Amino acid sequence: MRIGHGFDVHAFCEGSAIVLCGVEIPHSKGFKAHSDGDVALHALCDAVLGAAALGDIGKHFPDTDPQYAGIDSKILLRHVVELVAGKQLYCHNIDITIVAEQPKMQPHIETMCDCIAQVVGIDRDDVNVKATTSEKLGFTGREEGIAAYAVVLLEKK
Ligand code: MG
Asked: Helix-strand-coil percent breakdown of the chain, rounded to 5?
């Protein structure tokens, strides 16, 4: 068993929707990002790469590379899962925490978990997504952006 941790932040910009855990959520803002800005999947990619000692998302998908402009982060996650499979490492379970004042995540949590389970190729029961506010404190509290943490356990097979 190998444990990995990931963290990511994206700032808001003008827009009408954000993507979190592969799910598009209507919002009064968008994400400022080179990719689709899916902060939760970026944290998850970093957790998976970290557990496998394969560096980080910036090393594998540089934000200076035009081929990743606006890319669906599910594609990045799929690629990361394939990379660690090359080391005979497979996701055992995933736990994600999203920190945001708005929008409310609860209506989307099930869809998020289903989406991650499908992309990673594990059971729905091995994925957990939760959300919290930061009690109006800090950049998340001021609704300047969203942060996400991910923890993953990889199993060697
Ligand atoms: Mg990111």
From this structure: 35, 35, 30
Distance 9 CA to ligand 1 centre (A): 6
Residue 112 clears pLDDT 90, i.e. is over it:
yes
Residue 58 CA, ligand 1 centroid: distance in Å: 9
C-alpha of residue 37 to centroid of ligand 1, in Å = 6
Distance CA 20, CA 72 (A): 11
Q: Is the pLDDT of residue 63 over 90?
A: no
**Residue 86 CB contacts under 8 Å (≥ 6 apart), including other chains:** none
Tell me, yes or no, if the pTM score tops 0.85.
yes
Residue with tokens 């356990």: 153
What does the alpha-carbon distance between residue 95 and residue 87 come to, in Å, rounded to a whole number? 22
Over residues 65-90, the pLDDT tens digits come to: 898 888 999 999 999 999 999 999 99
Q: Three-class SS of residue 89?
A: strand
| Alpha carbons 54 and 80: distance in angstroms, whole number | 9
pLDDT value at 102 more than 90: yes
Q: Which domains does the chain have, with CATH numbers?
A: 2-156 (3.30.1330.50)
